[in-house]
Specification:
By secondary structure, the chain is α/β, with parallel strands linked by helices. It has helices spanning 24-35, 51-60, 77-81, 87-92, 111-122, 139-150, 163-173, 185-189, 233-240, 249-255, 257-264, 272-284; strands at 11-16, 40-45, 67-70, 84-85, 97-101, 104-108, 131-135, 155-159, 177-180, 194-197, 221-224, 244-246. The structure holds 2'-monophosphoadenosine-5'-diphosphate. 2'-monophosphoadenosine-5'-diphosphate binds next to helix 6.
Amino acid sequence: MRDSRETCLTKAFVAGFPIKHSRSPLIHNYWLSRFGMEGTYITREVSPDALPDFIAKIRSGEEPFAGGNFTIPHKEAICRLADVLDPLAEEIGAANTLWMEDGRLHVTNTDSYGFSANLDANYPGWADQKTAIIYGAGGASRAVVQAIRNRGFSEIHVLNRTVERARELSDHFGQSVFAHPLDALDELMKEAGLFVNTTSLSMNDQDVPKIDFTSMAAGALVTDIVYVPLKTSFLKQAEEQGLATVDGLGMLLHQAVPGFEKWFGKRPSVDAELRNIVIADMEKHA
Ligand code: ATR
């Protein structure tokens, strides 16, 4: 049986605190207009204190949404408030996508899908490598480790300024995930097939250390999940040293695909026009 709120199935949101700068409406409204659909996707500023009430109102139908996205700072709290966590959200301990199904609130995490789909689209074959280096062990790193582990990398080295956080990650994911301090980088870089920056260092170019990427394996890829700036200092350095690079904007675009499909019933695609629209918006607000 379909949800009783049949008439409301084409309204979705992104909730965060703050939320003004979210690019999700741009992405979903582009797809809605592409499909010629009537739905809407709006921003909702929801403070952490107001989150339980907002969720209760979605559940009761007072807030007539088919579902929505949650961003900072709600990605963990939403896991405690939803009725059903899928295995991805369960394993990461954070969720970004919610939908109503049979009267219950389901959540998932689409960040690892977005990470892999971005690389699949822009550097097919990236997952044929065996060894990966993940620079950073914060919240965003978990989805990346999950994605890479699920694609069969046999050695995943997580390096972090606070080694304890990297250790928590390796304990959480087990076997093929190893924790290191940042100064282990040069040694680990030898023959690595993938380097991913997940730290916030990229947001401020001058803080990024000099990195030697030249000892990486043949066909290796360097990527960054930060997309403002689009070409981060990690990517610039790698490119100057002759490595292949993929920027992080595609992860943002691809992670939106499963949510749109859940709420609006059609699977959208990420194309150059969408990417250009988001880049133009980034330049406007730079
Ligand atoms: P997010 O959820 O976006 O990953 P986070 O949980 O605050 O944000 O994590 C930020 C990451 O950037 C962490 O890996 C952090 O290292 P610590 O765990 O040691 O804090 C890393 N980071 C931030 N500033 C850094 C700096 N100046 N040098 C090295 N790493 C830094």
